[in-house]
Amino acid sequence: MKNEIIISKMIELSKIINYEPTDISFIQNAMHCQIIHKDGDGKNRKNYTNDSYATLGDAILKFVLTEYLFDKRCNKAEITSRKKDIEKNDTLFNLCNESCVFNYAYNDKYFSPDAPKQNKVPHSKHDVYIEAIIAAIYKDKGFEYCRKWIISFFQQYGILFD
Question: What pTM was estimated for this model as a whole?
Answer without folding.
Answer: 0.89
